[in-house]
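AAA+ ATPase domain-containing protein
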Amino acid sequence: MQDAAYLHIHEKFRPNVILPDRERIAFIDQPRWIGYSKANQLLNLMQGLLNRTKQHRMPNLLVVGESNNGKTTVIKQFVKKFGQSYIEDDIRWVVPVISIQAPPSPNEKELYISILENLALPYKGSGSTAMLRYQMIHAFKECQVKLLIIDEIHSFLTGTARQQRQIMNCLKFLCNELEIPLVIAGTKDAVRILHTDPQHASRFDVAELSTWNNDGEFKRMVGSFERFLPLKEPSNLTDTTKINLIHNISEGRIGNVKRLLSECAIDAIKSGTEHISEQAIKDKSWLRPTQGIRKVIG
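Structure:
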């Protein structure tokens, strides 16, 4: 392969262009980190919390944003980069970061079970809430956990106001007892859970991953996607007409951008066109949600 023939692709990914079609499609479908300024700022904020000196009242962070706009991806990247477990002194299992998805309801016992399952520790589901709480706190201390992350925190809004206060008081107790910071993430509605008690709101900073404007940063982000798509011909996705189409169909959400371009790239491989045309993007307009629902047909 002559690398000069694929200058539209980052040199790291050029070898993928000559793979069989099936392998190129599999490569496109793989999860992939695209760094951008807001995501990097959020990673830095979370790293700062991870490195804070223990104290009774630790700072906490709420990350909010529209659905499919990168919150969970940033969390996974943070855990991959800073939260990998390791063995210390050949005997102690250290887990710097615990990251879980919030239980479907604001239930204290379900929260502890989710955490213990994340740690792959045995537990008695029939045990009391107090027993599970003690086991979880003991495990955190033994594993030297420095940061707890709970994604999809808006799930707690399914409960009553009383249940929401109880689960937030539980989280406050854990942070005080363990002297570790907490990062929670969810949709914009998640802010409401902080207002169940003025004390909760005072403990959290709020970081928003807003939808993208159709500007230079969005253009650079789309260009970054093209740099790893294993297509033999350049697609020139940063062309003004294509950028406008991509922004309109994706509604400025990075998850929608990824799916749109992945679908178009897979079609380009299957059809043999080997590039993403303006018409190909238009043909994927069904990816645009209609009242929150994607209409594949009709």
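Residues 37-209 form a domain with the Rossmann fold fold (CATH 3.40.50.300).
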